[in-house]
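note to self — DONT lose this again. spent like an hour looking for the file last time. sequence + predicted structure for the chain T wanted, 120 res
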Amino acid sequence: MLQERPVRQLHGEPRRRWFSDEDFDLFVFYEGRTIVGFQLCFDKQADETALTWDRSEGVWIRRVDTGEAHPFEQRSPVLTEAGDVSPAELAARFRDAATSIPDTVRDAVLRVLDGLKGER
């Protein structure tokens, strides 16, 4: 179940909130009280994928490459092309995990996921 975690605010950037559990990380960005973007990272234990929504840029989905292929090298994670993602399945999983987060946050994410169902 997603729980809110402490997150550092960066001067000059939108206010952010972070919700996390064993499968999801959700970063939500605000201007004032308005959600202006979010990044939903899922399948953290396997093939982590990030769905990013920005109100001016739209939606994109990318796989998270941890950069940790070699045990003695620490590289920064990068986003690469994602495989197939089922928006309906992701929405159902997110809905189950998001019972304890604010309705406005949950509903904003589900609106974007529902919009993707018709596109894929």
